[in-house]
Amino acid sequence: MLKNLKIATKVFTGFGVILALLVGLSVVGGASLNTAGGYFHDYREAARQRNQLNRVGITMQRVRVNVRNYILDPKEDIAKQTIDRLGLLSKDVAEAKNLLASRKDLLSQVEKLEKAEHEWKTLFEGVVAAQKKADGLLRDVLEKIGGETDQTLAQMTQNAAKIGNADAAIAMGEMGGNLLRARLAMSRFLRSSEAADADRARKELAEMGEDIAKLMPELKVEENKVKLAKVEELRKQYLAGAEETVKAVNERNDLFKVRMTALGNDMVKTGDDLTGTLRDFQDALGPKAESAINTA
């Protein structure tokens, strides 16, 4: 049959077949290039998303270090630096949410991270408020009342010694010792947050109250009875202030050691899960992109 065809027909037919093959190859190559381009775009987007989540993780770590530094040394400049870094964390999480908006399968986890970040900030503000309350109680109650009580006891001890009432002088000296040990125990508690230190302060104040009750009937001078009654009232005020201080410190510690720590751990896990998912996505995408390029 081909022998009967004219040469021109044969030439044009051959060119047509070659052209068709070239067109087919071009279509396949173009499709493969488009596919490879799509894979590259998705890979690049995943890389940007992972980088942003890594920034979130770094900022979270800096915030946690700042909070711990504040607990160890509760200064206002450290609190301000922590609030500033929480603001940076908010921006980093918002950017991560924006970059992952197209990933509907991951968006709920980013939103969980965003919610946790807001709660973290609220909890730290609670830590600062509790610390300020404890500092105020120390300054306005424990130091003030403790100093006034100590001064009153010292005057009464001197007066008792002058009139030769040795038993009263010794008893008041012992009360002064109880008060001093209670104040030292509260000072340790503010640094250590150990329940044993608070219990020691309570014990010393209780013994002081027992000694006051024993001494009161033995005093013959009405002025001394009035002063001792004042010491008892100051002791009660100091004890109440100490209990409020313990409550404020325990509240601060609960916010930091329990709630902030647990929430921070959850945030780290969520961030790790997100980056892990993106890493697996990139690992699967790489060979596909390579295959598409080779095909092209």
What are the SSEs and their pairings?
Blueprint: H1 7-72, H2 76-99, H3 104-162, H4 166-192, H5 195-215, H6 222-295
Features:
296 residues, mainly alpha
- Helix count, DSSP H or I runs of 4 or more residues: 6
Q: Any idea what the radius of gyration is?
A: 38 Å
The backbone outline, from C-alpha atoms, is rod-shaped
Number of strands: 0
End-to-end distance, in Å?
A: 37 Å
Describe the biggest sheet? Answer: none
Share of helix among residues? over 70%
pLDDT averaged residue by residue: 86
- The assigned structural class equals mainly alpha
**Subunit organisation of the chains:** single chain
List the uncertain runs. none
Order of helices and strands: HHHHHH
How much of the sequence is in beta strands?
A: under 5%
How would you characterize the overall build of this protein?
The protein is an all-alpha fold and 296 residues long. Helix content is 92%, strand content 0%. The protein has 6 helices and no strands. The chain is rod-shaped. The chain starts with 6 loop residues before the first helix and ends with a helix.
